[in-house]
Amino acid sequence: MAKGPELRDPRTLYSQPPFSQQEQSEPGLAQDMKPLPDHGEESYKGSGRLEGRRALITGGDSGIGRAVAIAYAREGAEVCINYLPTEEPDADQVSTLLKDERRTLHRMPGDVSEEKVARKLVTDAADKMGGLDILVINAGKQVTQPDVTRISSEQFDQTMKVNVYAMFWMTQEALEIMPPGGSIINVTSIQGYRPSPQILDYATTKFAIRGFTEGLAPMALERGIRVNAVAPGPFWTALQPSHGQPMEKVEHFGEGAPMGRPGQPAEIASAFVYLASNEASYTVGEILAVTGGKPTS
Ligand code: NAD
Ligand code: MG
Questions:
Q1: Which of 69, 79, 200, 261 is the most exposed place for a label (fewest CB within 10 A)?
Q2: Which residues in the chain show pLDDT less than 70?
Q3: Nearest CA to ligand 1 atom 8
Q4: Where is the composition biased (Low complexity) (predicted)?
């Protein structure tokens, strides 16, 4: 009998808190985190589930987006990643990795909080790849403040722009060009169910993403396009030490999950593979929670 994958205890699979003190400026780089996140670089094995598909992933340089880019590419998809220009060092890493494996990855830096950029990103990606089958709207902004009175209008506005407006703009463009069978995947959060007071503006956007996903799904299905979302719990990504959490919380990040540790991006990528694949043909308007056991209700 062929030897299958090793049976592993999920509790001890990855580093557990406490982590060392670390602080980065926003948006942060995965390559400067201690310990380095696991995006599936060594572990993700594809099996042709997305062969021939054309995918655009925002925030694809690092964290959850990078893990999805690696998984999609190894499943056979052609992939475009978007990220902020300051994140080139992280984009370089994933691009080099996948190019060495002869996968096709296009780099498309740009700030999706600008309407023109967000809309053009979708049409440019479709032009580059000869069409668009999968859109993963994953870019996110999260900046902690100790009290609601400390959230500036500028911060509130920018968080809404990146997390909510960009989703709205990109969805409008995608619906015009995606063929039936296409898949749009949004990224909400456990924060879209159980908001933490220190990230109130962010949590508000994650509720909005959940509502938008559920409301849009039946309408998009009239075009044969499936819309779903993923709701991550605590994941070890650059979002957290770049002022996404109070610094003392970063050291204990993930401790509150029944798993006792944060998830690694590699542990959520297959949820995105599933939602994009033909196997999910009956899955619509679903919010798939991957939280290390943290309840969403
Ligand atoms: P990350 O920092 O690695 O990824 C977020 C990405 O958003 C950045 O890499 C950046 O490229 C992109 N981004 C931010 N502002 C942008 C802008 N103006 N224009 C273009 N791109 C921009 O962190 P992550 O945790 O992998 O985040 C991915 C998604 O997962 C986000 O939507 C986040 O809200 C969500 N999420 C994360 C967690 C967690 O614990 N890490 C939990 C729940 C939800
Ligand atoms: Mg990044």
A1: 200
A2: 1
A3: 59
A4: 15-27
